[in-house]
User: Which sequence fits this backbone?
C-alpha cells in the first residue's frame, strides 16, 4: 500500500477535499490521509510515498521533517530543499535569464540591523545607498514588498521618494524589494500543477479579497497560449510541482508579478467552486501519479531546470 499524506495547518477545504478525491478514485494500492507525526528520528523513513505540503513555510519543525522524509525516499510536493533556498528576488533574477518579462526590481537591506549584528557587520555596504540611481531605475509609482514570504503582508504602494522613506522606516528587520508598478489592463492568477497542467484564472487584485476572482477578462487563444507558455517555463525552471503565477498584462505583454507561491490559496470561498474543483481533481491525479512512480529509498523529488542545468554545467538559456 502506498500512502499519500496531506500536511496542512488550519486550512480545511482543500486538504479534506483532496484526501476524499484521491480515495474516491479507488486506485488499487493507493490511499490518502492527513499526515500523522508522533516522532521524527534521523535517517528513518516515513510511511508515506508522497506528502503534499501546505504548511511547512510557517512551521520549521515540519520543514525539517519533510527534508528527512525526502532524503529517505518520500516524494514531497513541493521539494522542501528548493523551497527553503528560494525567494522572490531570486525568482525575478531567474526570470530575466529565461525570457520572462518582469517588473524592474531591486533588493534593499533591512532598515534595522538584524539580530546579533552591528554597523561593523555591514562594512561592505555603501552608506548611503545610491538612492537616486535606485529611484531613477524603478520610477514611481512603485511597490515595496518583502523579498521572502507570501500574501499581502507588509506590501506598500508608493508614489514618491518621501513616501518610500516613511514606509521603509516601518519595515524594521524585513529585507524588502522595490519594484516598478505595472499599470495593467488585465490580470491573471494561474495554477500550475506537475509542471504541465495550467489553470488561467481572471483575477482583479484591486477588488476586496473575496471578490478578486470576480473578473471578466477574456484572453484570446493566442494570448492564452502565451501566458500558458510563460507559466510552464517559470515552474519548470523553478521545479515546483504546485505553484501559482500572477501575470499582469500591459500593452499585451504578460509581466510575471508574483510567482513564488508554493502553498497557494486553494480555499473554495476565495477561488470559487469551478477553480476549486479543478485544483482538487488535478492535484489528486498528480499525487497519484507520483505515488505510482515512487521508488522506495530513491530521490523522488522534482528538481527544476535551473538546478539540473547547474549540476550538469549547462548554460541556463
Assistant:
Amino acid at each position: 500500500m502506498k500512502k499519500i499524506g496531506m500536511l496542512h495547518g488550519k486550512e480545511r477545504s482543500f486538504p479534506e477535499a483532496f484526501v476524499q478525491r484521491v480515495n474516491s478514485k479507488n486506485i488499487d494500492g493507493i490511499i490518502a490521509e492527513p499526515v500523522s507525526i508522533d516522532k521524527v528520528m534521523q535517517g528513518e523513513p516515513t510511511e508515506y510515498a508522497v506528502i503534499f505540503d501546505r504548511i511547512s513555510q510557517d512551521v520549521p519543525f515540519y520543514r525539517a521533517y519533510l527534508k528527512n522524509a525526502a532524503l529517505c525516499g518520500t516524494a514531497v510536493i513541493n521539494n522542501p530543499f528548493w523551497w527553503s533556498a528560494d525567494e522572490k528576488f531570486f525568482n525575478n533574477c531567474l526570470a530575466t535569464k529565461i525570457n520572462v518579462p518582469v517588473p524592474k526590481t531591486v533588493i534593499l537591506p533591512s532598515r534595522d540591523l538584524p539580530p546579533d549584528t552591528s554597523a561593523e557587520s555591514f562594512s561592505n555596504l555603501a552608506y548611503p545607498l545610491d538612492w537616486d540611481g535606485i529611484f531613477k531605475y524603478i520610477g514611481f509609482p512603485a511597490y515595496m514588498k518583502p523579498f521572502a514570504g507570501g500574501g499581502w503582508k507588509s506590501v506598500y504602494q508608493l508614489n514618491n521618494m518621501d513616501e518610500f522613506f516613511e514606509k521603509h522606516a516601518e519595515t524594521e528587520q524585513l529585507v524588502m524589494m522595490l519594484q516598478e508598478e505595472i499599470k495593467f489592463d488585465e490580470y491573471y492568477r494561474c495554477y500550475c500543477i506537475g509542471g504541465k497542467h495550467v489553470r488561467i484564472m481572471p483575477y482583479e487584485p484591486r477588488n476586496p479579497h473575496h471578490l478578486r476572482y470576480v473578473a471578466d477578462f477574456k484572453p484570446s487563444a493566442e494570448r492564452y497560449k502565451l501566458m500558458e507558455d510563460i507559466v510552464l517555463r517559470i515552474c519548470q525552471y523553478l521545479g515546483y510541482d504546485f505553484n501559482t503565477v500572477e501575470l499582469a498584462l500591459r500593452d499585451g505583454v504578460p509581466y510575471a508579478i508574483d510567482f513564488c507561491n508554493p502553498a497557494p490559496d486553494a480555499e473554495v470561498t476565495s477561488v470559487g467552486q469551478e477553480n476549486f474543483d479543478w485544483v482538487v481533481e488535478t492535484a489528486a491525479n498528480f499525487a497519484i501519479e507520483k505515488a505510482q512512480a515512487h521508488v522506495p529509498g530513491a530521490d523522488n523529488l522534482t528538481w527544476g531546470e535551473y538546478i539540473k542545468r547547474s549540476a550538469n554545467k549547462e548554460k541556463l538559456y
Q: What stands out?
A: The first helix runs from residue 13 to 24.
